[in-house]
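Example 451, ligand adenosine-5'-diphosphate.
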Amino acid sequence: MFRNNLRTKTAIVFISIALISIVIVSITTNILIINSFGNYVTKSTDKEFSNIANTLAAVYKSEGGWKSTTGREIGHAAMMEGYGLRLRDKDGKIIWDFSSMSYMMNMMGKWNKKNISEKTLPIIVDEKTVGYVDIIYYGPIMMSDLDFKFLCDISRYNVIATVIAIFIALTISIYVSNYITRPLINITEVAKKLEKGDFTAKVYDIPKEDELFKLTAAINHLGESLKNQEILRKQMTSDIAHELRTPLTTLQSHIEAMLDGIWEPTHERLKSLNEEVLRLINIVKDLETLNKFESDMLKLNKIKFDASELVKSILTNFEASFAEKEQEVVKNIEDNIMLFGDKDRIAQVFVNLISNSNKYTPVGGKIKIDFYKDGDYAVFVIEDNGMGISKDDIPFIFERFYRGEKSRNRETGGSGIGLSIAKAIVLAHGGEISVESEINKGSKFTVKIPL
Ligand code: ADP
């Protein structure tokens, strides 16, 4: 009958807990009220009973014996109040009897033969028993009509309160179980869409509760990264095709021209074709590096190492390249900066940046390199007065295959992958990479890596 789902189950659990508590509370209050009310009534009736016996004794005394009229009005009044009296003399002979009349009066109403109680009290005058009065009443204790009405009212209010409480409990239970399960239902729907390849799916209704918030954030993050990967994958394929097509077409048309005898296969021409092939090989090599890095991005081989020494040794390796272009290099390397990270990959970042500065700064230019500690970060800054990057290019230079306008047609330009590799490595270490540059004035790259 019930579907086997969390919403129904939580609702059933809440409702059951609420119902059980309500029933327990209402039963105990009912018992408590009836008991304490019963005690009160018993005490007051005991007093009333001895009053009846005392009054009858007084009447007996003043009339000097039992007549058929003695104390009748007392019996009558009792009958009006809902209980019966029977007066007997000391031998047990009935003088008058209002009990059957009371019984008759109440037959229609609340009285029920089974619940009739009877109590007999002696009537004592001058320490001698002169007769007996039987008190006949309904129930285990004697209650007047008012008492009875009071009890009925209490029971009725108890029932009304219980019904209201059950209604409130039902409403709250359904609300709470819906509230808890709604985010899960939303997340399931989004997960189903992601499974079908709709990576734009997202949970918009973010719950405030910590656990549900984290779960929602995780699924949204998953969707986001699947979407990005999808975009990257498509972009990558078209980029690769584009990058390879141009040099291949050039090669093909040049070779064809030579085969057709239009062009002499001179040394110069073959050398230029060879350079083009080398460029292609370089592109493929870069792609391999990037792919390798991105496919096992999470597998950083982290160790603790002296980053200051690393920077210094890389700079030594570049001395020849700087000398070749007669570039002035200013170094400020703070000693003993220890980093915990993938040493080879971080080296690759520094190499890429230094190589770019060397490449894009003309003969006789100036390059300044700073490496220092700033708070919780190791900061690497490389500044050159080279060709700079145009405002339009800056947002894209960290993208794969993107080459600045000026370097696009130059032999010196690489494949446009270096900075994307550098950025991927820095991000994987929880760091940041940024650039400030002005065309024809120079560029400044800053890398921050957490210590
Ligand atoms: P590339 O292999 O072309 O150097 P990168 O990803 O390393 O690829 O750099 C992307 C582009 O950013 C370069 O083509 C170049 O236009 C620009 N660039 C990078 N570093 C510098 C620099 N120091 N000065 C001027 N331009 C730079």
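Summary: The mean pLDDT is 85.
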